[in-house]
Design goal:
Its cofactor is Mg(2+). Keywords: CBS domain, Magnesium, Metal-binding, Nucleotide-binding, Nucleotidyltransferase, RNA-binding, Transferase, tRNA processing, tRNA-binding. By secondary structure, this protein is of the alpha/beta class. Helices cover about 45% and strands about 15% of the residues. The strands form seven sheets. It has an eight-stranded mixed beta sheet with strand order 19-28-27-20-21-24-23-22. Strands 3-2-1-4-5-6 form a six-stranded parallel beta sheet. It has a six-stranded mixed beta sheet with strand order 7-8-9-10-12-11, sandwiched between helices. Helix 1 packs across helix 4 (about 145-160), helix 32 packs across helix 34 (about 805-810) and helix 37 packs across helix 38 (about 870-895). It is globular, with a radius of gyration of 35 Å.
Amino acid sequence: MKNKQEKIQAPTVITAHANADFDALGAMVAASKLYPGAVLIFPGSQESSLRNFFIESTTYLFNFKAFKDIEPESVKLLVVVDTRQRSRIPHVRSVLDNEGLRIHLYDHHPDSEEDLPAEKSVVREWGSTTTIITHEIMARGLTLNTEEATLLGIGIYEDTGSFGFNTTTPRDFEAAGWLKSQGMDIEVITDLLSHELSAEQVTYLGELFKNAKTYDIHGVDVVITEMSTDKFVPDFALLVHKLMDMEKIKVVFALGRMADRIHLVARSKNPDVNVGRICSSLGGGGHDAAASATVKDRTLAEVRDDLFALFYSQINPQIVVESLMSRPPVVIEGDKTMADALELMSRYGLKDVPVVERDSMRCIGIIGQQIADKAVSHHLDGVGLSEYMTRTFETVEAKTDLYRVMEIILSNRQRMLPVVENGDLVGVITRTDLMNMLIEEPARIPDSLMPDHRRERNIAAQVKNRLPQRMLDLLKEAGELGAEIGWEVYAVGGFVRDILLGRPNLDLDLVVEGDGITFAKRFAAKLGGRVKAHSKFKTAVVILDDGQRVDVATARLEYYEYPAALPTVELSSIKMDLYRRDFTVNALALRINPGRYGQLVDFFGAERDIRNRTIRVLHSLSFVEDPTRILRAIRFERRFDFQIGGQTMRLIKNALGLKLFSKLSGTRVMHELQSIMNEGDPLACLLRMQELGIMEAIHPLLSLDRERIQILTELVKVHNWYKLLYLDPAVVPWKLYILGMTAGIKRDEIGQVTGRLHFTQKEERDFLHLRDMIGEALMKLMGWKEGHSRLSRLYKILHPIPVEGILFLMARSRKEYIRRNISQYLARLQYVDIEVNGKDLKNIGIEPGPIYTTILDRLMTAKIDGRAETRHDQLNLAKKLNKELSASLESENGD
């Protein structure tokens, strides 16, 4: 046995799901072409043909190792193919705890709740995962040998049923065609995938024939069959294929009890039956046409009953949808007002109503009672529905299956679902309609769509991998204190968002379903620290002895008395606390109490929006209530390289049309601008603001013309350069970029901008003085000539100016030699000092007086220009200057 010192270092590891098939094996080998030098870990397979093929050839051709032979802690990058589910890679579970582990995923299966978070995720709904990676290889211009091309081809042929499954796509044909050009041997593939049955397998196939029964599920023939044995049956999937072929079966679910487990293999040639979705509800996986699952601790009868419950909810239940919907629907025309909508919903007791085009039944939106009520309270009762109705929504046809209805209403949280025929609205299904039906038939709800199941999954492993130990200790202490008091405690907001994004964020925000201030005081007493409480907002800041700050809030709901007002606070639950936040990506909570530690609470689809890289508000009046959220939307969009969603962008433009920025105080606008200017790329944010008309909305004088954009572009460059030097003094970003934003504004007009941004008197005075100094320095720099003017002259021009002004001069200058010498000033000259002081001047006999300032100033000039670099030189020069200055003074007095 190898000891720890002999284990292989494996910085990059490639693996696939347990019980691997040929697609998994082919995808692993394909991935090794994208990650040269990677170690391949075979996860094991129960299919005898695959095991034999692997043992006889693959291990000798490729860099496969046993997991026990590698050092798990050496793995820095884990590449997982043909699955994204944590539970399906138990053979590398210990690697998932590695600190800083990067994960790349390649898969063709549907999303699941336990999908691994990944730095890179390539997911395509193609016939096989091998196809996906083959296209990556093609795009990179790589080549394969015959053995590689054939192995990849086996994976594609198997998972597409030799291109006979409905899940086969043109991409699969393209990949196979390219593999043929690389030497793929089709005869080898045909021989490998065409199996001769053993006598024992023929016996098992006969049992499947005997037990096969056909059921009519909403007009679809579904075959269920089963067999039972005390040992594992290899190639069970092959027996199911034989059964389908011989009996011309379109849909089959085969159950095999093998020892203490039930193995399910499902195949479908009917587009109305998605076997992958059904198997995923039983803990398995697959795609539309082929899937499987393994169930422990259940009997055959119990699993069969579960299948029937899933059938009736997921297989083409047309009659259920038609009987469930309400018709004719109550509608409102799009040219009506918010007040009209509120009155209509109050009259009929509705929470939502579809919006249709005038004189037609074409549905163009949905308006909710909550939004209409808020709009009226904000005195927007006369505003048209088109401004705030939800334009992005799902619809279904009368024949749509019930699973899709449940997916939209329960999983996607769309409370009302319009039913359309030929583009016209014919009915609606509400959440209440659906729930009333499900109360009568609860077995229809697949576990995967249960609301609580969707909202919470455990990310404790990600938390552990992505946070330093000190932060993990704080979460543990806070959770234990919450349990001790009897209150639920959550980490919330950007802290949780950045865990999912894999970004560093040590700004810990806690929310307590209890008294946040009381919790903060006990937390500080427990860990050592002090508390700053804000009773009005029921929040506190804990400042620990090591300087760590922890913000603590009481779970609350915020409502706004009028547009752009500060919030009024009421106690509420965690859901309501999250609902008050700006964007879905920030509306996340992480349970930290013992027993539920690491559970992610996501009511509003934050994980989905993070995956889709989308910034989306939680409700239509978000920007009306707080227009500064527009600036935050832009800041997050540029920081994360996301995209503001279409509905959210429309609401931004609506808020600008209502001129809501004029209602904001300058202090709040300035605070958001300062946050933007602290971003890594503030210019990207400012350009986006200019594009949307926000700069002009803040103040017309701040509109960015071409010259200002050029100056700001240079400012970003010089600022980044300066930060890399780690020099003192540090730059105050907002002071630097406000200089660029106000470049060209006349002095008698600048007060309009500083007034709008609510500068304090000191800030305004300092800013105007800085602009004046910059103007004077620009004139002097125009006369400074390299090779003719002394460096000491440059020093005297720049030395009185704060660093923000100097960087502005560097960005503003058109002459490269001036920029170069300003950089020399910042990097060296500003730190030059002479070795002589006033005490030294007194010791050499110079009488104290104003002459000291003159002499010391000239000594500095001489040192910078290289004429008195040592203390000895400076003392001699001081004596000489004293004589010259004294003689000059006597001459003046004599005259």
